[in-house]
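seq as requested:
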Amino acid sequence: MASRRGSRGSVLGLIVATGMVMAGHVVAQQPPPPAPIPSQEPQVTLPSIPTAPPVMPTGQAGPGFPGTPVPVGVPTTGFAQPVPMVQTQRFTFKIDPNTPIKDLLPTPPTVKPVTGPVLTDDLTKVPEAEFQARTEKVAPNGKQTEQLAHQLAKINHVNAKKTDAFMTALLANREDLAGLPFAMGDDCRTAGERTKQFTQAVATVRQALGSQNSIVTPAFAPPSPVTTFQVPVQQPNGVITTVAVTQPQATPPVMPSSNAVLVAAPPMASVSNPSFWSQYATLCEQEDATRSRSDKVKSEHVTLARIAALMQMLAPESPELRLGLVKYLTAIPHVEATKALARIAIFSPEDDVRNAAIDSLKVRREKDYTDILIKGLRYPWPAVAKRSAEAIARMGRSDLIPELVAVLATDDPRMPTMKTEGGKQITMVREMVKVNHHRNCMMCHAPGSPENVSSNAITAEVPVQGQPLPLPSEGYRQSSPDLMLRIDVTYLRQDFSAMLAVGDAHPWPELQRFDFLVRERKLTSNEADEYKVKLTPKEVGVLSPYHRAALAALRDLTGKDTTPTAEAWLKLLDLPTPP
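struct tokens:
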């Protein structure tokens, strides 16, 4: 939510509101800062203090509630440096009501031709989808900001006629986006208590992350009583976190002076160990103590929101931290926790993280996650299919033997298929694509200016190219109402995310988050032929990676072996021929 808290009639109220912003909308008690470490450690100077009271930041992500993957397009982690708040900017644009919709759409990017399926596990080779063309040269900050505000104004202009009208027009005019799994209407919206609890859940995760990595060595000795603030700190490895800063309490209180020095702890020292989970558990207990145990509806929203926030915010974090996530989900007897474990089991790249999730699934209700494993067998990236088959074998799911045999009976899922559309036969292909999480916010979320959305909507500002990304401690920068997006309206959701290097990234970090999902794309006859040539084995007896994965799982489950065909396995296991 975008609301200012506290009194604005006094300097004290201003400082309290500023402290709340930098704490990331945290309501739980802050832990005391740890003991200082030696002065030879890297030092970082405090960032400048905002000159105007900023708006309270909202949650760090889109709804992404369990049951649906995480939204694409809003920055989460991996930020490079502090971003000072700026004075609120407003823009005024006059749009002729008779302007054709095509003229209001963004300039499409130059789409590189896809010359066939990706035959490697290298995610950098996966085709990329984008909302608009990238500029050859980044405009000055003010001009770049104005251009973003103008595009958002165009979207609002089109949507004023009909809900989601802009997205409908965009997909109708962009073949490169038409096959992506966009959701519209009620399917892409959250509201009410669900939205409120997700916002709180994100703030809790941020506070637990931000309290870990750094300490403060002020240039003065603070007497008691003291005032505590949250400030951003950049680690030696480039990661930005928040830390509790104490200072003498004046009348009125003032923020720490510029001679206070933030001393960074060893990189990833505590994010990778159980201290995050200990802090997170403490914060959750404090929140739960304020809630009635008899309010089962609210408790359900809280559970779902916490699962969603953790699944999203920890996705790019260390394997050790995500092992803790598996342990946390294991302790939650909820169907959405089970589904989250299944997604970890097939999408996480690390063996130990996947194995921990699989071990947890062994004691869960099978019907709650079986469909995720079956879909994984035919995911158009072989690595996911292999992991799904391995999970089925490790869990001893003999009931899924027919599904594994069916994989042997079908073509490689990346092969072109025929589909009837408008009474005509067309050739389609399912393929994985990637979307830069930070550059494509307008492809995923509707505009959120205060003139056309409810005050209860969760909003966040579009990152401006050429300006540093917001700090995790800030939540989201909110310098202009004309740059806001609605995080409670999410058109596009991904299957998984990964951090990939981006060239010429400054001032953004080199490693940026990319979201991966599956699109269905039309092929010309020549393109279809090229796919078939590349996916058809060159020698007799050579199996596709999907057939190899299914065959390995069948051997593990049955302890038997035969010719690697569906017919041979049906006969060996005396199974009925599927329809």
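The longest strand covers residues 424-436.
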